[in-house]
Amino acid sequence: MSALALYDAMVTAITECARVDEVKDIRDKAAALEAYYRQARNLEAEREAANVRLRAERRAGELLKELARADAPNPAGKNQHEVTSNDRTQAQSPYAAALADTGMSRQTAHRYQQLADMPRGDFEAALAGPEKPSTNGIIRTIREPQKPRVSDDALWLWGRLRDFENKGFLDCRIDTVLSEMTEAMRADVARLAPLVREFLEDMEVTINEPA
Question: Is the pTM of this model over 0.85?
Answer without folding.
Answer: no
